[in-house]
Amino acid sequence: MHGMRLLAALSIACAARAASAQRAISVDVQGVPFDARELTEALRVRLAPDGAPVHVRVTAGANGVHIEAHGEARDLDLRGLSGPAAARLVALATDDLTLDDLVAVPAPVPRPERTLALLGTAASWPGTLGIGSAELTIPVGSAFAAITAGGGELVTGRLALYSGTVRAEVGVRRGWLDVRAGAVAEPVVVTTGQGDTAVVAGAGASVRARIPVADGVHAIVAVGIDAFATRTEYVEAGMAVVATPWWAGWLGLGVEVAL
Questions:
Q1: Coil vs helix vs strand at 83
Q2: Alpha-carbon gap, residue 207 to 211, rounded angstroms
Q3: How does pLDDT run across 156-168, given as a tens digit for each residue?
Q4: Euclidean distance between the first and final Cα of the chain, in Å?
Q5: To the nearest whole number, what is the mean pLDDT of the chain?
Q6: CB of 142 closer than 8 Å to CB of 110
Q7: Cβ of 123: how many Cβ atoms within 10 Å?
Q8: pTM score
Q9: Residue 163: C-alpha distances to residues 140, 189, 194 (Å)
């Protein structure tokens, strides 16, 4: 028996503590089709649980009710509603009178969007390797995946060398900055002398700035580095002329549009 009394006392104390922790809401209603309790419950749902006490006075008006709160006032047509439905409508109508007290709704976390980009890059091979490529970016949760394909040629140097490029990357976006990493493969075709074909492959990482220029359109400035696991050397007249690099830095410029 004593245990049950103690449990009951603890329950009452906890309930009293929870009630005392609730924000003070004072309601004065006169001549309206709902009672103070109904309006208090409707207001408590819409107001932040912490903050200064709130006082709302609602009286009958010519075409509905007259609402006063925070030194402001407005008239509202109840459209024939009564009881809890009318109280909820009044609570909704007081929003513009108690804007500072509304329950804060967390802003949605920005997510990457599906985009298509055209990019021109210059890489530091033995000479300058110029590449033009197209890139599709697909959101994956809060990150994204990107597929890039393109091709170009060695614009400076002794070899007539043409190269394609294929990239598969994952990345994260933080405002205007993208950080990404993934695999890269570059098929190489040399037409100097007897010619040759090869594929150099490895991994790469890059960062890029996305600069807004119009709605859904960004200018792209990118910088990255590729490290290759394979390497091919080209020889002319018994002497090494050029070799594909073990690693290469690159700079890119382009434009991106949202799909």
A1: helix
A2: 13
A3: 877 788 999 999 9
A4: 71
A5: 83
A6: no
A7: 23
A8: 0.57
A9: 30, 6, 17
